[in-house]
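Exercise 7b. C-alpha cells:
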C-alpha cells in the first residue's frame, strides 16, 4: 500500500482484514514517504495506533486484529515491498494554480509509480486508486512503467496496471465505506483487469456490493471525477434554493423531505455551510485540466467550475448574514462550533470553517473555534476541545454536524447568555431553534425562512 493517508490507511486495514478460509488473505506492507509525517504515520501503525482520528470504532478494531494476526506493518522504505504481488497506489495529487487556470503537477505520482515499477517483480499488479485527471494512466503512467522495465532489462508488459477509485467516506462508516461498498475498475490490458477483479474480490464484499468493470482506465478515471463533480454541482445548485426559501419564509428542508419521497429525487442534496474536504473542492476541476493538458482540447466545464466557486463562497453567505444581523463584525465575538469539513471527521482540509474564520477575522471579529476532534489546523486560531461557555459571545455558529452538537441541551448550555444562534448547517432540531428564539435569542438557520428572528 503506497500512501497511508485518509484513504491508504483505511484500504490497508481492509486488505489486512480480508480472510481466505479464516486465515489472513494478505500480508500488507504500508509504505510512506521518508518525511517526518511519513515516519510518524509508519510508527503509529506499527505501534497499534491509528495515524488519523476516526469516529468509526471499526478502524481501531481492524488495526488491533491486524496486530494480532501480524499481517500489517508500515515503513518508509519502499525496498520492503519488492516481493509484493499487488501494489495499491493511494498517494495525494493536489490541484495547483497555473497561468491558464487550475493545473495538476503529475511529477509526484509519476515518481511514485516509477519507484514501484523499479522494485516489483514481473507479474505483479499495480492498482492506482489516486484520483487523477481522466487520461492519466494510459498516456502518463504506462510509459513510466514501461521505461523503468526497459531500464531493468525486463520485457514490456512485465507489470500489470489497473485503475480503481475509492469512494471512502471518513466518518462513522469509514471502514465499511472501503470494504462494503461498490467499486469501479478497469485494466490497461484484459489480464490487468482480471487481476484487479480477483484482488478486489478478496478485499471488498463483492457478494453484496458487486464490482463494475468499465472498458478503459480512462473511463474509470472519468467515473471518479464525474461522480464528485455531480455531487459538487448538485450541492451548489441547492444553495440558491436555500436562500430563496429563507427570503420567503419557507423551511427548505421540509420541502426537500417531501420531494425525496419521489424515487427519482431520493438523493436530493440540501443547502449547508459549505463544501470542504480534499475531493469535492478539487475533483470537478480535474476534467478541465485533463481536457486542456492531456488531450489538447478546448472544452468548457461551466457547471463544474461554477460549482467549485459557489461551494467555496458558501461560508461567506453565513458570515454576511451575521454581519447584517449584528450590524457589523468589527469587535464582535463569534464562537464557531466545528472546524473539520464534515461531521464525525477530524480532517480540516479546505474546511468551510477555516474560510469563515479567516474572513471573519479579516473583518475585525474575534473568533473562537471549538471542535471535539480537531486540535490544530492551518489557521493561527487553534480549535479548543472543551465546549466554551457562550457568555460574552455575540453569535454562536453551529457549523459542523458533530454528534456533540446534535445532542446539545441548547438552553442548558446557553444559561443566561443570549447570543445570536446561527444554525449554518442544519444541525439543530426545529424544537431547539424555537426554544432558543422563545428564550430571547435571535436565531437564523440556513434554508429556513420560517425560524428567522
Ligand atoms: N479523503 C477522502 O475522503 C478521499 C475519498 C476518495 C478518494 N480520495 C482520493 O484518494 C487519494 C488519497 O487521498 P487522501 O485523502 O488519503 O490523501 P492524504 O494526503 O491523506 O494521503 C496521501 C498520503 O500519500 C503519501 N505519499 C505521497 N507520495 C508518496 C509516495 N511516493 N510514496 C509513499 N507515500 C506517498 C503522503 O505522505 C500522504 O500521507 C487522493 O487522490 C484523493 O483524491 C480521497
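Sequence design result:
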Amino acid at each position: 500500500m503506497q500512501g497511508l493517508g485518509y484513504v491508504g490507511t483505511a484500504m490497508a486495514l481492509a486488505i489486512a482484514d480480508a480472510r481466505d478460509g479464516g486465515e489472513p488473505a494478505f500480508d500488507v506492507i504500508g509504505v510512506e514517504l521518508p518525511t517526518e509525517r511519513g515516519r510518524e504515520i509508519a510508527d503509529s501503525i506499527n505501534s497499534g495506533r491509528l495515524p488519523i482520528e476516526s469516529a468509526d470504532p471499526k478502524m481501531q478494531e481492524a488495526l488491533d486484529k491486524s496486530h494480532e494476526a501480524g499481517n500489517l506493518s508500515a515503513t518508509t522504505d519502499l525496498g520492503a515491498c519488492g516481493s509484493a504481488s499487488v501494489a495499491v497506489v493511494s498517494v495525494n495529487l493536489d490541484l495547483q494554480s497555473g497561468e491558464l487556470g487550475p493545473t495538476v503537477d503529475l511529477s509526484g505520482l509519476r515518481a511514485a509509480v516509477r519507484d514501484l515499477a523499479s522494485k516489483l517483480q514481473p507479474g505483479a499488479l499495480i492498482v492506482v486508486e489516486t484520483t487523477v485527471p481522466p487520461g492519466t494512466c494510459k498516456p502518463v503512467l504506462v510509459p513510466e512503467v514501461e521505461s523503468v522495465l526497459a531500464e531493468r532489462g525486463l520485457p514490456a508488459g512485465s507489470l500489470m496496471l489497473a485503475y480503481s477509485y475509492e469512494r471512502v467516506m471518513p466518518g462513522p462508516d469509514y471502514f465499511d465505506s472501503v470494504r462494503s461498498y461498490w467499486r469501479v475498475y478497469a485494466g490497461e490490458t484484459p489480464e490487468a483487469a482480471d487481476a484487479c477483479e480477483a484482488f478486489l474480490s478478496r478485499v471488498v464484499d463483492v457478494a453484496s456490493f458487486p464490482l463494475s468493470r468499465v472498458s478503459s482506465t480512462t473511463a474509470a478515471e472519468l467515473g471518479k471525477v464525474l461522480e464528485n463533480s455531480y455531487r459538487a454541482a448538485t450541492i451548489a445548485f441547492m444553495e440558491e434554493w436555500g436562500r430563496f426559501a429563507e427570503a420567503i419564509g419557507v423551511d427548505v428542508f421540509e420541502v426537500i423531505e417531501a420531494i425525496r419521497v419521489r424515487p427519482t429525487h431520493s438523493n436530493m442534496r440540501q443547502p449547508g455551510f459549505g463544501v470542504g474536504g480534499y475531493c469535492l473542492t478539487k475533483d470537478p476541476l480535474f476534467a478541465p485540466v485533463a481536457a486542456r493538458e492531456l488531450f489538447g482540447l478546448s472544452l468548457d466545464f461551466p457547471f463544474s467550475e461554477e460549482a467549485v466557486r459557489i461551494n467555496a463562497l458558501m461560508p461567506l453567505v453565513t458570515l454576511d448574514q451575521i454581519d447584517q444581523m449584528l450590524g457589523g463584525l468589527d469587535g464582535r465575538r463569534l464562537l464557531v462550533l466545528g472546524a473539520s469539513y464534515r461531521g464525525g471527521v477530524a480532517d480540516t482540509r479546505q474546511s468551510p470553517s477555516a474560510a469563515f474564520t479567516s474572513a471573519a477575522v479579516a473583518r475585525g471579529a474575534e473568533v473562537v473555534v471549538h471542535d471535539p476532534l480537531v486540535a490544530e489546523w492551518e489557521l493561527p486560531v487553534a480549535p479548543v476541545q472543551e465546549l466554551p461557555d457562550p457568555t460574552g459571545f455575540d453569535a454562536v455558529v453551529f457549523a459542523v454536524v458533530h454528534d456533540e452538537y446534535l445532542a446539545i441541551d441548547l438552553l442548558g448550555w446557553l444559561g443566561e447568555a443570549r447570543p445570536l444562534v446561527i444554525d449554518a448547517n442544519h444541525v439543530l432540531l426545529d424544537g431547539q431553534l424555537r426554544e432558543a428564539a422563545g428564550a430571547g435569542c435571535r436565531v437564523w438557520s440556513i434554508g429556513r425562512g420560517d425560524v428567522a428572528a
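Instructor comment: The longest strand covers residues 160-164. The two ends are 53 Å apart (CA to CA).
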